[in-house]
Q: What sequence folds into this?
């Protein structure tokens, strides 16, 4: 690990870092601060800036700040990247402003079907769920699929049953109902549009979105997670990129942890999250360059909108997007950022 | 748009096939023979050689031969790689010897839930379905998800409904019932085992398996497809690697088309199919070397068994596996191979 090649990290790093390679790790001698970093997103393809009111803007920023604080508290105390990712995403899932958990969009049948994935970068263990109904925090379900089942990926009723068996909180249709999302469905229905492709032309009406978090902990471990309600008016059972390990979510300590947001079908066809990892590992590109190329060139060329957040093993963070905005926040304990548009 | 979506197509395909491929290219000048190639598999983790009887061995080889002929007939007449992949896999799905379609394993609830994916290498369009019940040929469903829906990936009842809307053949529980698979479920239940991880220790009891096909057509296009019933006694809603684009299935004209088989959870965590593509594209390795390393080194090191079939743009074929056997066949019109063990 090269101490000096940090990009947004400042310089107050202790020598303890020198001994921290992938995996294991002895504690830093004494109480020296060790490096950590976190980034989160609340979706790309946000409201157009022209439609954003000051009070809405404030509400979003306060929500991003609250979620960020959750992750910062875990990481600054030496907690794990996996815990930071899970807890930060759970906060965003419980917030009706974002398209995940409580604020999720409705599918063509007026149902909320949720997708989520989580992955850690040491052993590359992963858990994912798709088209799950009635589980309050799909990110927690993804984590217990990873830790307590022999499987990686569960969908539908089977995923819900597993969550209930394992004691996760359920939630009723009332919990998931938000007037704004219901009205979005009615507008989509009125247009006779059924999901993905048509939405690509105007992704800024808020009819899709995602939440995600990536983290580097003081032990040098990376983790990533993503959670979403998918796209308004999507088909029953539609799975986007978020729960597809390698498409919307990926983590590998050798390279980076990444969570994507945007028009999921394109992210699956590009295997975008894993592609970032490969350009770093096999193509020997840095995080910033590789992620920028993927979003600003490849995704744009494919005609799709979206973005990603990623962190590498040195705590460098990249948050490229090609849409008008992306709700996002990041911190490493010394510098903090909360943003929506290009600002 | 498959010309004739008959499953036992034999050889009566017209020259109309030439005009029905996705993103088709100019015709070859004159009638010069152009290169094509196909490979298929019927699963790794096959019956132990010690348990294979001569009549069973013959039945498997005849089945592989029949499926191979289907693909050869399409490709040798100038048909598309996508058609060859779909039709070849449909033949294997209809054959009760293989764990896909008719011969699929039962899950923990005694249900047959099917996964499949298909992908073409020019525009990297893809379609996938997971945990689908009652559709005779999931590979055809994956193809129409790709071609006639705005989505890439559908699961459960929503996937089935889409297939029925689109006029696909359904099939009853009787069609899918095979005594051997039912007895496998009872044996697993008696052992108190629920799927994936435990099976890894003894994958040769035939309780898992997959079918897949990859092809290069005379227009230089690649395609890949995979179809499976998953693992005996799997959880309701469990999704393996087969329908996960980038894990069990991938195609890109710049590198290769690949279909995997084996312990799916590990293939997802390695994003194995897309990793092969990346080692070729970014790591500049050849098909043989990259696929051999992945299966014989990386997969083995992860403690899992399985294999893959892959073809590159020059018609080179690789079929590495680290299990005792892998049902497989390949052809390029000049040389033909049908094999089960290392032979």
A:
């Amino acid at each position: 690990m090269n101490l000096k090649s940090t990009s947004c990290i400042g310089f107050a790093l202790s020598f303890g870092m020198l001994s921290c390679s992938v995996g294991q790790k002895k504690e830093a001698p004494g109480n020296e601060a060790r490096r950590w970093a976190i980034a989160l997103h609340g979706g790309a393809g946000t409201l157009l800036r022209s439609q954003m009111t000051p009070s809405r803007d404030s509400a979003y920023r306060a929500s991003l700040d609250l979620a960020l604080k959750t992750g910062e508290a875990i990481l600054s105390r030496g907690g794990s990247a996996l815990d930071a990712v899970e807890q930060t995403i759970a906060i965003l899932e419980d917030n009706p402003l974002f398209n995940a958990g409580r604020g999720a969009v409705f599918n063509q049948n007026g149902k909320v079907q949720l997708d989520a994935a989580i992955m850690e970068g040491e052993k590359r263990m992963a858990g994912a769920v798709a088209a799950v109904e009635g589980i309050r925090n799909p990110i927690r379900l993804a984590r217990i699929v990873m830790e307590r089942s022999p499987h990686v990926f569960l969908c539908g009723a089977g995923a819900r049953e597993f969550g209930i068996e394992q004691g996760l909180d359920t939630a009723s249709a009332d919990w998931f109902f938000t007037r704004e999302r219901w009205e979005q469905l009615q507008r989509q229905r009125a247009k006779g549009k059924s999901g993905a492709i048509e939405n690509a032309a105007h992704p800024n009406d808020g009819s899709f979105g995602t939440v995600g978090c990536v983290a580097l902990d003081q032990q040098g471990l990376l983790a990533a997670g993503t959670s979403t309600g998918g796209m308004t008016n999507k088909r029953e059972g539609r799975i986007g990129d978020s729960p597809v390990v390698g498409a919307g979510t990926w983590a590998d300590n050798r390279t980076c942890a990444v969570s994507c947001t945007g028009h999921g079908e394109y992210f699956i066809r590009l295997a975008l999250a894993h592609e970032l990892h490969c350009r770093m590992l096999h193509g020997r590109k840095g995080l910033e360059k590789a992620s920028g190329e993927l979003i600003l060139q490849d995704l744009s060329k494919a005609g799709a909108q979206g973005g990603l957040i990623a962190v590498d093993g040195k705590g460098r963070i990249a948050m490229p997007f090609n849409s008008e905005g992306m709700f996002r926040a990041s911190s490493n304990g010394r510098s903090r950022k909360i943003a929506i548009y290009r600002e």
Observations:
- Chain B touches chain A through 47 residues (CB under 8 Å).
- Chain B has one domain: 37-339.
- The mean pLDDT of chain B is 88.
